[in-house]
Amino acid sequence: MAKAIRFSRTGGPEVLEYVDVEVGDPGPGEARVRQHAIGVNYIDNYYRTGLYPVSLPSGLGLEGAGVVEAVGEGVTHIKPGDRVAYAGGPLGGYSEARVMPAHILVHLPDNISFETAAAMMLRGLTVEYLLTRTYQVKQGETILFHAAAGGVGLIACQWARALGANLIGTVGSKEKAELAKAHGAAHVINYNTEEVVQRVLEITNGQKVPVVYDSVGKETFFKSLDCLRPRGLMVSFGNSSGAVPPFSLTELATRGSLYITRPSLMAYTSKREELEAMAGALFQMVSSGKVKIEINQKFPLADAAKAQTALESRKTTGSTILLP
Q1: CA distance 108 to 122
Q2: Are strands 17-21 and 30-40 parallel, antiparallel or unpaired?
Q3: What is the pLDDT of residue 78?
Q4: Which ranges of the chain does DSSP label H, i.e. alpha helix?
Q5: pLDDT per residue as tens digits for the range 105-115
Q6: Is residue 43 situated within a structural domain?
Q7: Can you list the residues of the chain whose pLDDT is less than 70?
């Protein structure tokens, strides 16, 4: 038996239950992992609230790091005793131990701790595909990244700086502005005291930006479109303020033949070779010191509801983890 978080109805953090679960042995293509640290991400709230439908009852969590205890038939790339990390489905990361598909597990370098890995896998892999695959950010380019002081944002600030790009980050307070600047943002816009579109125009001398990365959703979507130069790319990868409302495709035409995409990590890591390449790039960035992972909130696994409440309040910075 192991302790885990489960929920049998959708709703607020109060629906999360701390219960005993039977872990069992891994089947073909599976591995059992004893987790040392677990990542908390905004997408977890989407599953808990029902924005992203799941079959109930359900586990929660898409990210963690630990040690392999056993592997099933056909699993050859990992073995018992290996240090591993992962980001991706199925749900169930909020647990002391779990049986899971082995193909999403990657070897964790000895110089990266379990806590750091749990705090960075989903966010770090997300930044890797956003800045190098969804749109290949080039040296000298100026880009716009919303929620720059969040877990994904702080990694993006550093990664963009490593690429030689100028990242404009939006934040909601003076303290978060300072944090984003300290992590490599070239410019910061406080959306509570400044008009985002106007500031982007000023920073870019009226040229606007070739790409906007928007994980906020409803509150920022149309402003994001207005920050794009003709034929620019809108990357909508989250809904922290709510889902983007339906809109006419002519909105893209009237703003200069804009492009739009709604990417997901799962689509980018579905092939094993791509997952390994992305994880390798992330590990290299972190090992080199070009990207430092900020773990600013830690909660016991039993307090997963408190962790999600803190995340929803937008009072957190950097990464949040659970400790079994």
Answers
A1: 14
A2: unpaired
A3: 97
A4: 42-49, 114-129, 151-163, 174-182, 196-203, 221-226, 250-254, 265-268, 272-288, 304-312
A5: 999 999 999 99
A6: yes
A7: none
Looking up residue 220, the CATH number of its domain turns out to be 3.40.50.720
Give the pLDDT confidence score for residue 312 in this predicted structure.
85
Distance CA(143)–CA(212), nearest Å, equals: 6
Write the burial class of residue 39 (CB in 10 Å: 0-12 exposed, 13-18 middle, 19+ buried): buried
What is the end-to-end Cα distance of the chain in Å, rounded?
13
Q: How far is CA 33 from CA 21, 60, 102, 239, 265, in A?
A: 14, 16, 10, 31, 22
Q: How far is CA 246 from the centre of its chain?
A: 24
Name the domain count of the chain: 2
The pLDDT score that the predictor gives to residue 66 is: 98
Whether residues 112 and 161 share a domain: the answer is no
Q: Is residue 129 part of a domain?
A: no
CA torsion angle 197 203 204 208 (round to 10): -10
User: pTM value?
Assistant: 0.90
Instruction: Specify whether 65 is located in the same domain as 98.
Output: yes
**Helix (H), strand (E) at residue 299:** strand 295-300
The domain of 109 spans 2-121+274-323
CA–CA–CA angle 135, 139, 144 (5° rounding): 55
Are residues 110 and 147 part of one domain? no
State the pLDDT at residue 211: 98
Residue 23 belongs to a domain with what CATH number?
Answer: 3.90.180.10
The pLDDT score that the predictor gives to residue 317 is 76
User: Based on the domain organization, do 192 and 282 belong to the same domain?
Assistant: no
- Report the alpha-carbon distance of residue 79 to residue 96 in Å, rounded: 19
Tell me: do 218 and 242 sit in the same domain: yes
**Contact indicator for 136, 164 with CB cutoff of 8 Å:** no
Residue 99 lies in a domain: yes
* 93 phi-psi bin (left φ>0, alpha ψ -120 to 50, beta other): alpha
